[in-house]
Each structure stands twice: as structure tokens, then as C-alpha cells.
Design goal:
alpha/beta; Gyrase A, domain 2; Four Helix Bundle (Hemerythrin (Met), subunit A); 3 domains; 14 helices; 12 strands; binds guanosine-5'-diphosphate; binds magnesium ion
Length: 436
Amino acid sequence: METIVALASAPMKSALSIIRLSGDDCFQIVSKVFSKDISKCNKRAVHFGFINDGRKKIDQVVLITYIAPHSFTGENSVEIMCHGSMLIVNEIITVLIQNGARMAVNGEFSSRAYLNGKMDLIQAEGINDMINATSEEAKDMSMFALTGETSKIFLPIRQKIGELLAKIEVNIDYPEYEDIADISKQEVISVCSQIKADLADLIKVGERNRVYHEGVKVAIVGKPNVGKSSLLNALIGEDKAIVTEIAGTTRDVVEGRFNLNGVPVYLYDTAGLHESEDKIEQIGISKAKDVITKADLVLFVVDNTGIDNNLFNLIKDKKHLLVFNKADILKVQDGHSIYVSAIKHDIKPLLDGMVRMLEIDEMSVKPSFTNTRQIGLLKNIVGQIDIAIRDAQANEPSDLISASLMIAYNYSLDLLGESNKNDLTDEIFSRFCVGK
Ligand SMILES: Nc1nc2c(ncn2[C@@H]2O[C@H](COP(=O)(O)OP(=O)(O)O)[C@@H](O)[C@H]2O)c(=O)[nH]1
Ligand SMILES: [Mg+2]
């Protein structure tokens, strides 16, 4: 394979940076610019020396050589640890490219690892989720994927489909052999129903747990001056949105993020909704309406000035919570509504209400298939199993049942990325960072 190069660490000033190379000629290419000849390198080793461009020394570095297949990509690889200046990093990468390496594209190291059989597709997707995780729970779930534990929960299901398929095929291909037990339609229906139940469990947990990665969108909506921006600040624990006693302070949508039960909550504080002559405020109000449309949950904030029914009509069909703010100065409080004081950071009843409405109270971190591709494939398999059950019930010929099971089996190969490796990779790995 062509030798690729990329910065693997963050593109910013730091103590050290890591530049990674992978490919057939990486030892030769590095030798051309390194103070030591490592072209005959045949074991994993650490070297100390200088990178130079033929005119001057660029930096003093430590580099590690990895010998195929014992590397992340499964190919000969080098990791260069240089000083963490972007100037140095650019000079080193430039001189490596001048000597035959090519800049890697997004996810190319991981895609090579996958193509070289170092990991399946679920594991590769786990790496990307891990890098993007913003909560401990999301990171722990990615770890299950990365270490292969997620793939493992699917294998028994795939095996059941394979075995059933094999039994039916044997019956079709060798009907003359009497020592092969005939598989009854009843057995087909019973095994398929079991497979379907197992898949339904995986889909349920996956759809629930995907919020650890994807998070939820929550819009804060209400009249001007009820304390929406104060509430955003109290929820995220910092003074992000400007708060004043002047109505119409918030014009653009202000975003904030915090974790609730390990789930990233994306908050959108909006301009107060009311009739306004101010052009900028009008744009803000129209943006607020967009945010309401996209939100998973709307916090409808009200204070002692009461509920505006026109406004309430705008959000009443969305999943929403009615939140009474300024509880510190509210005289009458009934027993069952949510009362908070944004200014005093007294927001526990709201947090409890959000957990309940977002149904994130009884979640548990466990291996699960959470992205659209994975859940889509699980549903496709269920679709084919359903067809097989229906055909068996209608006493259709075995080869018809076998055809549906075959499609289901192929989907199950796609899930771990075991078929059509090349078709899949471009799409999936383009979402990765360069250098990963
Ligand atoms: N007493 C009291 N005042 C509050 C509370 N939350 C906000 N305010 C005040 O209400 C005014 C408007 O707050 P702001 O967050 O800008 O409201 P917004 O227009 O809805 O974003 C400010 O003067 C805040 O200090 C609260 O919990 N209690
Ligand atoms: Mg505001």
C-alpha cells in the first residue's frame, strides 16, 4: 500500500505532537530524512534522532517503528513524536511528502486497519464514537464497540440464521438422503420467532442508548423576561447567555450543553416570543420557531406574569414541560407543577422533569448497536425474518423461505462489515478525523 502520513494529535500548540506514517515504504521514506537509517528495520523499536530536510535540522524527535502485521493498521508504520509546534509539524510532514509519502484522507489509518482484518466495522465505528464522546457513558459504550464486545452480542444471532439456512438448503439440495432430518415448517417458524425476539431486544436497547452519542435537543421558550437565559446559565453552570431586566435582550439563539444522566443535552435559549417591530428581534423570533420545530423537548418558561395562551398554542403539540420560574418571588405554588428559581440555581425539579420526559431514567451502559447504519441493518434483518415466517405459515416452498433467510444472512455480514469491504469503507471512514 502507498505510504500515508498525517498528524495524529490535535492541530495546536502542545508539548508534543505525533505524526503517523503507514505503508510499504514508510521505513525507507523516514530514513531519507532521519539521522539514522531505519530502512532495514525488522522489529518494533524506539529511535532517537533528528529530522532534517537536507539543508537543516527540523527537530529532535523520538520515533517508534511498528512491523506489519503488528501495528494499528496491520502495515509497517512509524509514529514520530516531535515538539508540539504547528510550524515543526508542517515542516516534517512536508519533507515526508517530498520524499514519497502522501497526505492521508479522513479515517484512512482506521480504514486500512479494517481492510487488513485488524478489526471489524463495529470496532472501527467504535473508535470514531470514542473520539467524539462527550460523556463518560458515551465513552464507555464506545469502549465496548472498540474491544469487540458489541460485535460479540450479535454473533449468536447470525449463527442461528446461518444454521437454519444450512438445514433448509440441505433439505432442498439432497431430498433423496433419508438420514437427513426433514426440517418442519413449524421448526422454521419457531427458530425465526426466537431470532426476531433477540433482534427486537438489540434494536430496543440500541435506539435507547443512541442518545448517549447523539444527545437531545431542548429548546427554552417563553415570553420576554421570564428568565429563559438565566435558566440556560443555571443548567450549564456558567454565564453564557446575557441576562438583563430589559425585555428583548436575547436576539439570536444561544446554545449551551450539559450532561444529564450521561446524556448530552443541547440547549437552545431563544428570543422571547412576542409581537415585535424590531427587525433583528423579528429574525430572532423566527429562528426561535425553527428551534421549536427541531427540539426533542420544549421548556415553556413562565413567571408571575402568567401564561400567554397564543404562545402556549405554538408548542402544545411538542413534547414539553411547563416551568414556573422565579419561584423565589412567586406567592402561590400548587403542589404538582415544576417551580424553579434560575437566579438561585434552584433547578432540581426541572432536572427531574427532564429526565422523566426524555425517558433517560432507567438507561444502562451496555454493548449496543446505536448508529443509523447498525440499527437500519438490524431492522432489515427483521424484515426478512418476517417474510420467512409468513412464507412458512403459508406453507410456501422451502426455496422461497431460504431466499429470505439468505438476504437476512447477507445483512448480518454487512453489520460487521464482512461483505463488500470496499463499497462500505469510503462512506463510513470519511466521517473520521485525518490521522485516525
Ligand atoms: N427573582 C428572580 N428573578 C429572575 C429569575 N430568573 C431571572 N430573573 C430576572 O428576570 C430578568 C430577565 O431574565 P432573563 O434571563 O434575561 O430573561 P429572558 O428574557 O427570558 O431571557 C432578569 O432581571 C433576571 O435577573 C429568578 O429565578 N428569580
Ligand atoms: Mg434571554
